[in-house]
Automatic annotation (TrEMBL):
Gene3D superfamilies, per the entry: NAD(P)-binding Rossmann-like Domain
Protein name as annotated: DUF1731 domain-containing protein
InterPro entries attached to this UniProt entry: NAD(P)-bd_dom_sf (IPR036291)
Top-level taxonomic group: Bacteria
Organism annotation: Vreelandella olivaria
Length: 74
């Protein structure tokens, strides 16, 4: 799962705004992606919430429809 901290993304956007010679699409992500399981456990830990069991893909699809692809794929 590629991720990026909000502060890093804002800094990247501000940098790109100042660069007149750049064009096209740019991706922002941390240099070391983690698995969804690792991300979920870390997030739960920081929120002081349990991360007991994974949510099956069909539940995400039923609940989020097309947006579930953001959670199920990269």
């Amino acid at each position: 799962m590629p991720w990026i901290h909000r502060d890093d993304l804002v800094a990247a956007i501000l940098f790109l705004i100042d660069q007149e010679g750049l064009s096209g699409a740019f991706n922002g992500s941390a240099p070391h992606p983690v698995t969804n399981a690792t991300f979920t456990k870390t997030l739960a830990s920081h929120l002081n919430r349990p991360a007991i069991f994974p949510v099956p893909a069909f539940v995400l699809k039923a609940g989020f429809g097309e947006m579930s692809r953001l959670l199920l794929t990269g």
